Amino acid sequence: MNDSVNRRKFLKVIGVSAAGVAAAGAGVELISYRAYADNGSNGMGNGNGESGVSGMSAAAMANTSSSPTHQWAMVIDLRNCDGCGSCTAACQKAHYLTEDQKWIQVFDMKDTVGNEYFMPRPCMQCENPPCLHVCPVHATFRTDQGVVLVNQGRCIGCRMCMAACPYEARYFNWKSGVNYPKLSVSPTPEFPVPQRLGTVGKCTFCVGNLNSGLLSECAAGCPMGVIYNGDMVTDVAVNGMGTTVKLSKFLYDNDAITYKTDQNTHPRVWYIEGHGQDLDSDTGAAQ
Amino acid sequence: MKEGNLPMNDILEDDIKEENNVDWYEEVKEASSRSITQKPGKNWWLLLTFLSLVVLAGFGAWIYQLKHGLASAGYNDQAFWAVYIANVIAFIGVSYGGAVISAILRITGQSWRAPLTRISEGMALVTVLIGGAFIVPHLGRPDRILNILVYPNVSSPLFWDCIAISTYILATMVFFYLPLIPDMAIMNKWLGDRNTKAKKRIYSVLSLSWMGSEKQRKLLHKVLTIVSLLIIPLAVSVHSVLSWAFALTSRPGWMESVFPPYFVIAALYSGTALVIVTVAAFRKGYKLEKYITNRHFERLGYLMAALGLVYAYLTFADLASEGYTGITSGWISQTLTGSYAIPFWIYVFAGEIVPILLVAFKKTRNATGMTVAGVGVVISLWIKRIVIVLPPATQPLVSGAWGSYHFTWVSITITLAGVSAIPLMLMVLFRFIPLMSLDEMEEVGPIGSIEQISTKTLNVIRKEKTSKTLDVEMKELVMSAKDSIK
Hints:
heterodimer, A: Alpha-Beta Plaits, two-stranded antiparallel sheet, 11 strands, about 15% strand, disordered N terminus, disordered C terminus, B: Formate dehydrogenase/DMSO reductase fold, about 0% strand
């Protein structure tokens, strides 16, 4: 893990990175979430020419009238993470997950000089998601807001996506007999509660929360303000302590990186490193 | 086999000249139909009952697994693929061996294959069906399996798997059925009154009104050659695609360029071994020692040993580059010295060293020795598949500890059910069809079925025999056809 840190490409300018994504992501199939919602259980895009966000920088997105109003992203400021696991607990509570299902999991990591640090790992919401390519039934799809979701009503439980994901971000529903509350709503890809036995689940970015102006459960639950929900269109990111930053500047100023860049996945989750390093920042990171 | 290995050419000539062939052929018919004509003994029924009970227990365990989830089979998030996918690979693998051994021997005109083809093709058919069926317990939601056809994602290796396996199952069925056509006609005629009405009906339908005319023979021979040629690349593609379900992920230990040939050779190796075991079992059960001799086991043993050496080489090649450079995520040390060391070295010992030694020594190069070697190879190649699947699946990709898979009574019972289904289905299958391909046996004659006779010699035999007996046979067939109309 640690040597891959060295090889990570540091994100200097978002636009440059997005241009790179444009080349890599040209052939990537994007499924519009709106088309998904409109067409019911079909889950296929309506082919309205939404070539998706991969090919555009955040600034370009904002200027294009036909583009979606949000492009969700996440920033995780490792400098402040003390590994308390509140994010995991909040996520599991909101989604009624079992103890093993850590859609956001806090890993103990070692940096290059052997110091320990903590790294929360949600789903990276890759722009080039390996899980999406290998799913034999299109149960995994990507919305026009850049969120990768699972249709548990279609998943056959082959677990090929778990084999393909380089981040171990997917969790299967192995056991029956999990007690779920009686809910008046049926599970949807954006809020897959209750989980269905024999299908796969993962972090949804709490996209339902985001779209109604709320933070994701993990961001809201983090007492350290580590997790920021960001929108690449409006170029804003907010954490659970109410700190608001300009997304592109925040990433630029803090040398934000994505995890396992060599996997060609182009995550929408950026990490700001700090542990063991003297990254004194004046850009409005949580105090 | 070279022509020079023939005992003596003049014996062969004598054999053709004399009409010994006819008696011998009658004996072949009798021996081949023992499974049909003889009332099954007590042991047969006992074995059948036992195997059926194990298969039923497997179904019971599967229903339990459906109700309680895959956790009951030992699965967890760090061992998301385990025993069932290994079973799919292992069973479809041995099937491939059965079919390709038969196909290669047929195309290359190996006359000694004649008493073996039916049993190995039967084994191929049965195991591919069981291997395909193991996809069902592997899935979390088998009730939605048809989603693969309803919402196909053509970029998924599993979709390719689906296409490849179903095509291969179809091809194996055709490959099994084609040589059966003349046999059905021959059996129908030969059994005569001893046949029940229902069986007679089945035979005459399946024989497609085979008369054994020159034209029919030529056509069948042509089609068989084409199917034999087709089934080889088809089987290569099936196992390559199966390997790509692993090799097209980014997991260290699975993302190996050696995987497609690695899987293909493993299939051939284990398949040849199971051909040996199956042939030995039926030879003993129906006393076919006269037709299936030590020579057959010796040759199959050579084939198996050669494939075993190639497989050992590929195993080494798979471990070499990452092992040497040390750029590994740890799956190699887990395999060689860690949690999977015992199964891995069992494979090395019982799946490579012992069988190759058994082939190497003249003393053990016989039916018993080869059967022991075959059993060792089949079991250790299944173990090897587990060792291929588990270490890369259970490795930590981000950080933290290695995962682990533990067998439970559910996964063990379902696996044993699959194993028991092989002899069970074969025992039932051969209650209806002859144990040896009568048509091929007649074609190659008594010496050809044991030693190697060139295609040229075979043609000479065929020509003589055809001119002599065809008229008589045709007349008989027409008469029997008329009888059945009455």
